[in-house]
Amino acid sequence: MRTVKEAEGQSDSPLDTRQVMVKLCDQLGEVLAGKKDVIEQVLIAMLCGGHVLIEDIPGVGKTTLARGLAASLDMDFGRVQFTADLLPADIIGVEIFHPADKRFIFHPGPVFHHILLADEINRATPKAQSALLEAMEEGQVSIERETHPLPSPFLVLATQNPLEHLGTFPLPESQLDRFFCRLKLGYPDADAERHLLRGEVGRNRISHLSPVATVRDWCKARDGVVDMPVSDALLDYVLKLLAVSRDGSWLQQGISPRAGADVVAAAKARAWLHDQAYVSAADVQAVWFPCLAHRVLADGDTEAALTGVLEQVSVPA
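Above: the chain sequence. Below: its structure as tokens.
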């Protein structure tokens, strides 16, 4: 297994950085078997500077994925267990008066890490949930009259149970829109669950992981994603999809410009991870649901409506 020093010692070519990200994806597969697509979507969000909402029932590996990612990256990791009595200061920190110095000194909260696991985020009150808004959008927190920058890069991995609503506070649209994508893990297939029952994958494997990527690798990979070429034909394809989503036939509220930009960014990241020369319509379709399903409203099934939008626009040749 490659160490952090070996990863840092690589050349600066895009191919080497991509290999580090592929190695990261493979290592995460050691703790979450059979979920390559989900792991890839997390990496896509990470490479785009976005945040991830993992929504599923308990016991399918949401926290395991977050801990595996933290163990595989040479970065700071923090966790907040969201509860009804959680206060904003418990997340972002607080200023405490020190009599000896005769001044207030800021004590940072767990949000001041590269990776923050917001576990069961919908169990906290809207006031506590909103404490993450500025951090997720601007990479900083403001307390009193002071603004404190967060570590860069900064990634929030939030989890929630969509079925149990007793004692929960649904995330408002403004909070949901801060998440680059929403993912569902689902049950593992029979082969993956066999490996889990044998103890060959899962939470017990996290302690055996070592970092394979650094902050420098992450930043270099993001630069590679930004440089991925996007043709005018593909942009026209996306613009037509956005226009159809806003004509009132499929969605109550059309796809926002920010969400559309995130779709293009995610498609670029996917194409870069797959070592493609350009971004294709297949990349857009692959990230379409994770990037949009939590940001739009439909009269019926949201995914069916988004599928309808895709079917209305022909794929560029």
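The mean pLDDT is 88.
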